[in-house]
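Work Package 4 report. The design task specified in the project plan requires that, given a folded chain encoded as structure tokens, an amino acid be chosen for each position. We show below one input record used in the internal validation round.
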């Protein structure tokens, strides 16, 4: 029997993918665009397609709930780099938070939640996150 927590984690995984996947698809399937975009932002251009492929793979794993803590860590690292290297400087220059900054901060929050609680029972992977110790897990279940 699934709990409301399991369904909530499923919804969190799916909405994270809904926001994250389109950006990965664009970079994974249009390498010249991705290379140019990363070069224009001051990053080595070859990172563009690599990041796009990682984003697509992470999204697919997140949909089915496999390797969720590691997939979430990949999302966290990618979003932290985007926030600090691109969106935060652009927001400071604009004088207010840009929509891209706000989106990426929400993705960081989602990744942290999935790292802490795992994919839930409605997943192919483990129900519990390996990053949570057994004592903490028992207290969360009560």
């Amino acid at each position: 029997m699934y709990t409301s927590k399991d369904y909530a984690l499923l919804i969190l995984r799916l909405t994270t993918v809904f926001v994250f996947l389109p950006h990965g698809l664009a970079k994974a399937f249009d390498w010249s665009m991705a290379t140019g975009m990363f070069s224009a932002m001051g990053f080595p251009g070859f990172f563009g397609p690599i990041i796009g492929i990682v984003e697509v793979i992470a999204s697919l794993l997140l949909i089915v709930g496999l390797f969720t803590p590691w997939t979430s860590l990949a999302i966290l690292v990618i979003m932290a780099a985007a926030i600090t290297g691109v969106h935060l400087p652009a927001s400071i220059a604009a004088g207010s938070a840009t929509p891209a900054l706000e989106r990426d901060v929400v993705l960081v929050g989602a990744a942290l939640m999935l790292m802490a609680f795992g994919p839930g029972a409605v997943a192919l992977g483990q129900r519990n996150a390996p990053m949570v110790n057994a004592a903490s897990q028992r207290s969360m279940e009560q």
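The chain has a mean pLDDT of 88. Validation will be extended to a larger panel in the next phase.
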